[in-house]
Amino acid sequence: MLLAYLLITGVYAGVRLPRQPASAWVIAANLLAATLALLVARPGLGRLGQVVREIYPLLLLPALYPALDILNDFGGVATHDATVRRWERFLFGGEVSRSWWQAHPSQIWSAVLHGAYLAYYGVLAAPLVCFLARGRIRDARRLVDWLIPTFLICYAVFLSFPVAGPYYEFPRPDGRLLANPAARLVYATLERGSAYGAAFPSSHVAAALVATAAAFAGSRTLGACLAPLAGLLAIAVVYCQMHYAVDALAGAVLAGIVVGVGTAAERAGEVGRSSTGPTEPPPWAGAEAR
After folding, report:
1. Which residues pair with 198 in a beta bridge?
2. Residues 234, 248 contacting (CB under 8 angstroms)
3. 71: closest CA among 141, 5, 145?
4. Torsions phi, psi for 100 (to 5 deg)
5. Which is the most buried residue in 71, 101, 103, 112, by most CB within 10 A?
6. Would the pLDDT of 139 be above 60?
7. Ranges of H-type helices in the chain
8. Is-contact 177 104, C-beta < 8 A?
9. 192-246 residue pLDDT tens
10. How is residue 163 annotated by DSSP?
C-alpha cells in the first residue's frame, strides 16, 4: 500500500511539476521513501534494523503529510466544502462546527478539548512505545498495520476530494474561547503544520480511534486509558472548529472499517498458522513475546 501510494502521488507530482516546481520535492521524497522501504525488506538486518522495519511507515508520515499541501497547490485547488456542508445540514440540521461553540461557550471545556486535540500525538505514540519497550512486537506490528492504511486512505481522499474545513471556511472562535494555553498551542501548531484540503475525513479521529483499538487489542489497560482521550478528541475537532461534524463521523466510520478488516485478517492468519504448526518469534523479540 505504501509503495502504491508513493507511486501514485509521484506521478501526480510529475504531472503538476510544470506549473508547481515544488512538486519536485515530493518526487524526491517519494523516491527516498521507496528506497527505505526496499532496504528494510532485506534479510540479515540487525536488531535495530528489524525494529526500524516494523515502524518505518510511521516515520515517513511527517514527510507524506506536508506533501499534501504541495500537491494541493498550497490552497490553489478547488475544494468541496459546499458539498460537505450540505451533508452537514442534512445529517445534523445545521452546521455544528460553526454553531456549537457559539451556543455553548466555555473556557473550561475549551481548555479540556483543545488539550484533547493536542493529546492526539500521544494517543498514537503511547501504544507503539509501550509495546516496543515490552518486546510486544506482534502488538506493535498490528498498530502499524492498522494505522498506515488509515492514513493512506485519508491522504488519498484529501488529494481526490479536497475539503478545506471550518478552520479555513468560518471566522475563528473569539478570544474568550482561546484564552488558555492549550488553545494557543493548538493554533500555533496549526499555523506551522496544517495541510490545506485535509479535512474530510478527519484523520485525527480515524487514527486516534484505530490506535486506541490496536492498543486495546494488545493491552486492555492501555486501551482503556486511551479511550477517553480518543473520545474527547472526536468531540474536540468539532467543538474547536477544526473539522465539520461530517468529517469526524467519516473518520469514525473509516476507523471501524479498518479495525474490522484488520481483525478479520488477523483471525484468518491465526487459523492459517494453526494449520501449519506454531512459529517461533524473531530472536530480537522480548521474553514476553516469546
Report:
1. 163
2. yes
3. 5
4. -65, -55
5. 71
6. yes
7. 2-16, 23-39, 47-71, 81-92, 96-103, 107-118, 120-133, 137-160, 166-169, 181-193, 203-218, 220-239, 245-276
8. no
9. 767 889 999 999 999 999 999 999 999 999 999 999 999 999 999 999 999 999 9
10. B
